What we know:
heterodimer; A: 612 residues; alpha/beta; Rossmann fold; six-stranded mixed β-sheet; 14% strand; B: 210 residues; alpha+beta; Alpha-Beta Plaits; eight-stranded mixed β-sheet; two-stranded antiparallel ribbon; 36% strand; elongated
Amino acid sequence: xxxxxxxxxxxxxxxxxxxxxxxxxxxxxxxxxxxxxxxxxxxxxxxxxxxxxxxxxxxxxxxxxxxxxxxxxxxxxxxxxxxxxxxxxxxxxxxxxxxxxxxxxxxxxxxxxxxxxxxxxxxxxxxxxxxxxxxxxxxxxxxxxxxxxxxxxxxxxxxxxxxxxxxxxxxxxxxxxxxxxxxxxxxxxxxxxxxxxxxxxxxxxxxxxxxxxxxxxxxxxxxxxxxxxxxxxxxxxxxxxxxxxxxxxxxxxxxxxxxxxxxxxxxxxxxxxxxxxxxxxxxxxxxxxxxxxxxxxxxxxxxxxxxxxxxxxxxxxxxxxxxxxxxxxxxxxxxxxxxxxxxxxxxxxxxxxxxxxxxxxxxxxxxxxxxxxxxxxxxxxxxxxxxxxxxxxxxxxxxxxxxxxxxxxxxxxxxxxxxxxxxxxxxxxxxxxxxxxxxxxxxxxxxxxxxxxxxxxxxxxxxxxxxxxxxxxxxxxxxxxxxxxxxxxxxxxxxxxxxxxxxxxxxxxxxxxxxxxxxxxxxxxxxxxxxxxxxxxxxxxxxxxxxxxxxxxxxxxxxxxxxxxxxxxxxxxxxxxxxxxxxxxxxxxxxxxxxxxxxxxxxxxxxxxxxx
Amino acid sequence: xxxxxxxxxxxxxxxxxxxxxxxxxxxxxxxxxxxxxxxxxxxxxxxxxxxxxxxxxxxxxxxxxxxxxxxxxxxxxxxxxxxxxxxxxxxxxxxxxxxxxxxxxxxxxxxxxxxxxxxxxxxxxxxxxxxxxxxxxxxxxxxxxxxxxxxxxxxxxxxxxxxxxxxxxxxxxxxxxxxxxxxxxxxxxxxxxxxxxxxxxxxxxxxxxx
Lengths: 612, 210
């Protein structure tokens, strides 16, 4: 660290997050490297270092001969201001070199509110924002992550995007880049060749035309790019790369633990859930594999906590045996095991009891809707009986807190459904009164609501989001109904961010101008309430000739060409339409194990059969 | 094995690791090295480690001390070499031994420093030669004003091409005087940039602290 940078570091909060040097970081000899990748995560170090996807791809890219991948995170406001004032380019942690020294700028985006941060990081690194302003092969900006299933709003900024899982396609594209650099290709030649790799989307190779009413008229592929980009998956998930020696941060991060991914995809077909639809089909790791990977990672990191992660961990077939095996290893070593997102059923409660024998602080359930009718509409296969049973077991077993998560503004929701949330919370409280092991300690029941955001590639992709005013009316309706029950605390998320997220998630590429406008007005790190401002977005849309409600609160007719239909996530439009119709009929669709609903995802597997 | 002491260095990029983060990091180092720390009993077991004199973020050190206890018995000689492959960049175990005295007996520290963008060596020498140097600082109970002159045993400054070099011997515990506090005492004449390194620790009578 030179003195100029040292002086900066002494003036900012938590400087350890800006310096690198952590255990297990990868440092290579620059003279032995032909492609340098700056892996940018558009959020703080504490968030980005908690991201499993980043650990996986960091490992995979650094395993490639001739490639050196380094990490870059978004600086907090105090640091960003100083970098700009001192004209110091944003640097990568391993080498301390500025973004301008890198061949490839790789960006991982998991949520829409990170879009302005991506622009901010490019700008802090001295990289031109728009792909059209980067004529050469250097500074190729590539993006991947969950948002790629509709990345149209960021189309003007990215040279190429990866649809689906990155393990294989990242490697193939970097190998192509190595060739391109060695043979002095120009940028158009590289992009045309990359577009032929399955899973690669080159936005500049698609022309979008619009109708007079603002909807998309056509999307035309050119220069040999595929008319629809098909997402990539890792078929053999059991044998797939897992980072057993990840970088261990020297400063505290959000999820400071080993995160063991037990399976990908989800057998449940919750109709509001994007991840549940875009990550199909389900592929699991064997318990033996997980045990081995878990032990190895604990040994290589020294972590004291191991988390079993997936979209719905209680659906892992061998969960019971896996937990027993892991507990045998973890208990004597003082390592704790944690399970996220459990379903409210007896089986899960049994596991919870075995796993969390010491600390019984709180349990979290997500019924998502207050009445059975609405839970059937969204295909959340949880009954009131399941939930109350789980609470009974928990309270009898000594737990004294339950958190309940719900969405407001779901399709077909009525006031009765809203009030149903209060009813359910009261029943949970009643269950505690009847079954609590120790009533003297009291109980904390927390109800949280957030606003439903319709997402691409889900059966609800055509739905309107309810207005902010309507969401708040429902919030107050619920708050009044809960006011009389003292044991229940009600928290609601502000609807302002949900409104922006709704517009961004179903946007088209004209929205690039809006995002840039918001960034120029100071928008960055907008998933943080400290930095979010709705007013900036409300001003930016009209300034760019667009209407925010057109994207957020408009119901799309089924015959409309949606801006993301050239992204093929393997679940067919026919399936989504069918699921939407069933939602309106209030008909449940069984999970993948109970019966295949023919969503189309099995076509990604060589044998064409999901094993769930 | 109880009442053990590890002497270690913290330099380079590791100077930005805060005290709390360093405690967490050290636990993980022991865990990775397969050296089991002793844990406290009770509901919320925590490793029995404590760092004698927490460093200010940004200050380097060749003489940090951590007291710890192990769950097993072992030869302490090879312990530093066993721990070092598992350290983050900039932290290096130097020596492990049975603690011969309490950590509270560490009273003086010798430091070297480099200062830039302020006054020259003669000015600093005169300033710290005063018989009384009053400085306002934030203490545990509010803001207070203290005379730090009695806590400065040595303050030698030399002009060099790279800035003013400093050699200090400061009282480290009860009362504590840090180089930062000395710089604060300079007020508007404080250097724009400075970096100090702890070199050696002593007891009250200036015999080496171990």
